[in-house]
Amino acid sequence: xxxxxxxxVLVKRVQRGDxxxxxxxVRKYQHKVVKLVLRYVxxxxxxxDIAQEAFIKAYxxxxxxRGDSAFYTWMYRIAINTAKNQLASRDRSPIAYDLDLTxxxxxxxxxxxxxxxxxxxxxxxTEEIRGIVNSAIEGLPEELKTAIxxxxxxxxxxxxxxxxxxxxxxxxxSRIFRAREAIDKRLREVFEGGLGRTEEMV
Amino acid sequence: xxxxxxxxxxxxLSAMFDGELSAAECELLARRLSKDEALxxxxxxxxxxxxxLRAERGVKLHDRxxxxxxxxxxxxxxxxxxxxADSAVMARPAxxxxxxxxxxxxxxxxxxxxxxxxxxxxxxxxxxILWLRxxxxxxxxxxxxxxxxxxxxxxxxxxxxVSPAPIEVTERVISNGEPERYTxxxxxxxxxxxxxxxxxxxVVAHSEYSSPLTRRMALLGLVASDGxxxxxxxxxxxxxxxxxxxxxxxx
Lengths: 202, 251
Hints:
The complex is a heterodimer of chains A (202) and B (251). Chain A is mainly alpha-helical. In chain A, 75% of the residues lie in helices and 0% in strands. In chain A, helix 1 packs across helix 2 and helix 6 packs across helix 9 (169-190). The radius of gyration of chain A is 21 Å and the shape is globular. Chain A starts with a helix and ends with a helix. With 251 residues, chain B is mainly alpha-helical. Chain B folds into two domains: 7-130 and 146-163, no CATH class; 189-239. Helix content of chain B is 60%, strand content 5%. Chain B is rod-shaped. At the A-B interface, helix 1, helix 2, helix 3, helix 6 and helix 7 of A face helix 1, helix 2, helix 3, helix 4 and helix 5 of B.
């Protein structure tokens, strides 16, 4: 089974009325979609807003999705179109602010907030997570580290990884799972209470 | 749940995230995920681990987008029947790859639909052409009436020559006061059979005033005519007495 077919199982569930299946798709692809949108807008917060809008559009259009293409390919197109429309509408109607920008200090403050409205805490948290993941990866046995890197960074399938590492596909599946478990354990130790607490911290 | 079973489930979750789980197992685990928030949290962290490893610049490692989307779609319409998502699993435990792609029927319909469309369009086009061709002749004739020149023999022997082309009329009066040629327009409708019928009645009613030979020729002309009645009408008119001719012209 491929990723496309696995996603299609979730899509079919959404079409049959399971909204949490769509939540799984959003959780899986939210970072990729935000990264994609960041090619069009520089502001991370704006990119998240556009990604959110794109996912909502996708949910509304999902009854018409027949699986001719992969879900992510379809989502990719929706996200790009949403980002382009956002840019076009922004060009048509420049933002007007009811602020007196004649004061240089106030003007600088507002512009800084518009460029990056994310709090420093949020940025710090992201950096912290990256640090934890990277340190956890470094602490893994070599075969687990190789397997997870080939999967996540190079995007190889289990079969391709098995060929590269000269081991059975079942072993690859086990190694990738064990690598994830080890990293996840470190994350759970730091963010006790799961991702809800992460959100609160943000 | 014992540790071994939990490990197996988590291993399945990892494989499903990578799209490496069988369709049947994937369906069952998706069903489990829809009821288990902790398992969905684990799914989210798997996604986060990948994003962190890829070091995607500008991407915040949190679930803010997912949380907002979830809040928004909770107010959206639910597709299908929410209970059907699980009942479908019970009724059909193994979703094959072919079914997942839409099934043979769907694919056949995808091919057949444009073919049906083209066939219907071609049929409509052919019917339109046939209908237009049927409608065309009377319209063209009506728009471009071809004048006919009727040349009468001087002794009114009944020989009638019809030539369709000439438009110009050269009116030469013969001995009995009738012009040698008439130029008459072609009737607008091919279905006008009323004038010959009226003319036939007229000829019969006034037969006592014409000679037997002339009467017979007039009747033969009527019978032989194709319904347009033009030649016979002119021939009959040439045979009439002057007082009757005005009535014919009035017809």
